[in-house]
Design brief:
Blueprint (H helix, E strand, L loop, with lengths): L1 H17 L17 E4 L10 E5 L10 E7 L7 E6 L3 E5 L5 E7 L12 E2 L12 E6 L2 E6 L2 H5 L4 E12 L4 E2 L4 E6 L3 E4 L8 E9 L11 E3 L8 E4 L6 E8 L13 E6 L7 E5 L5 E5 L5 E5 L23 E2 L5 E7 L5 E11 L3 E9 L12
Antiparallel strand pairs: 1-2, 2-5, 3-4, 3-6, 6-7, 8-9, 9-13, 10-11, 10-12, 10-14, 14-15, 16-25, 17-18, 17-19, 19-20, 20-22, 21-23, 23-24, 24-25
Length: 375
């Protein structure tokens, strides 16, 4: 009797084993395809904080999910890392060297493995080679070398902008670095800053895989109130702040104070003396907006400083727009509402892709063409 039972157990053993193990080559489960990864940068340019794997989904009803395997070196065996019911997997912390994925059915029978992906730190982009800044009223305009994109356009994803407090007495950046934002353009406005409080800035380049470059050179700057270095957006980028009014006499007393001069407006506002319009070829144009406001380009060459625009031209004004060119001067003749013209001057200091920066002056004396800074 015992011999018969033992023989029966032996005969049943292969069938029982098949319930717990199936050679992947004998299954019909689809092999995952399109496996890719994206790293999560942390701002130090040294180690990612995580990795996100993605692959193509499948409509096969036998697939209940996917299993992920990884290894830390090319000489190790792969180990089970986790499972997911969606065609993506987030692995927090420093990523492993290699990963692959298998399809799994409801009995956890697996398909053959996908292609292996290797997390290759050599794919990191070059760091931005230079970084410059312009002090603004409550903001800082940053611009940097676009060498990361120009060196590998197909591998480039975006830039990350960081800032920290700056110890002016010690001449050192403090350690409270934080992310200000991201951009695909080699320029960025850091806004909502306190005037008179210095800060440090740095930029990194991020590849499509998520590798973050080393930092650009660090730049310190301090926002300040001024009639120079005024930021005006293109209306097609941002309507708010894309218009500018030299003087708006709120008290109707014929005099101007600091609250009435140099007012940012909506680019569509009929109260704006001019707006900044972007054309299809990417150029930015100063466009008269308010009724009674006309524009003339000052001279035939750039001007070295706003103070070089000392007198408004006697003629040459029109309602036509003029292209904004760095270093050039422009004079606006505006309707003062009292039968007299008033003149405002602009010198463009920077033209970006979505905004420009200008210096401005305005003469509040009715009909006086002598252009001096606001009082």
């Amino acid at each position: 009797m015992r011999a018969a039972a033992a023989l029966l157990a032996v005969l049943l053993l292969p069938a029982c084993a098949d319930q717990f193990y199936t050679d992947p080559s004998s299954t019909d489960l689809p092999i995952p395809t399109g496996l890719s990864y994206e790293l999560e940068p942390v701002g130090t340019g040294t180690s990612p904080s995580g990795i996100l794997l993605r692959w193509s989904s499948t409509s096969d009803p036998d697939v209940s999910g996917w299993n992920v395997y990884s290894r830390g070196t090319s000489g190790e065996s792969f180990s089970y890392r986790g499972s997911t019911s969606s065609p993506s997997f987030h692995d927090a912390g420093a990523p492993f060297l290699q990963y692959y994925v298998v399809s799994a059915d409801y009995s956890d029978v697996e398909s053959e493995p996908s292609e292996i992906i290797t997390v290759d730190e050599r794919l990191a982009l070059a760091r931005p080679a230079s970084l410059t800044s312009i002090s603004l009223d409550g903001a800082i305009a940053l611009a940097w070398s676009d060498n990361a994109y120009e060196g590998a356009p197909a591998a480039f994803s975006h830039y990350r902008v960081y800032s920290a407090h700056y110890d002016l007495d010690a001449g050192l950046c403090e350690t409270d670095w934080g992310l200000e934002g991201t951009t695909v353009a080699p320029e960025f406005i850091v806004g909502v800053l306190t005037n008179g409080v210095p800060r440090c800035f740095a930029v990194t380049a991020v590849s499509i895989e998520g590798y973050e470059s080393l930092w650009s050179p660090v730049k310190d700057d301090t926002p300040r109130p001024d009639a120079r270095n005024v930021l005006v957006y293109s209306r097609q980028t941002q309507d708010a702040g894309s218009g500018f009014r030299f003087w708006q006499d709120l008290d109707l007393d014929g005099r101007a104070d600091g609250n009435e001069l140099g007012l940012a407006k909506s680019g569509l506002s009929l109260l704006a003396d001019f707006s900044i319009e972007r054309t299809v070829d990417g150029g930015l144009w100063l466009t008269p907006r308010r009724s009674g406001t006309t524009l003339a380009v000052y001279g035939a060459v750039p001007v070295a400083d706003l103070t070089d625009i000392d007198w408004a031209p006697l003629n040459g004004y029109s309602a036509a727009a003029a292209e904004a060119v760095p270093g050039w001067g422009y004079v606006f003749e505006t309707d003062g509402g009292d039968g007299y013209s008033r003149f405002g001057a602009v010198r463009v200091t920077h033209v970006g892709q979505t905004f420009l920066i200008l210096d401005w002056a305005f003469q509040t004396d009715p009909g006086n063409p002598e252009l001096v800074g606001p009082k």
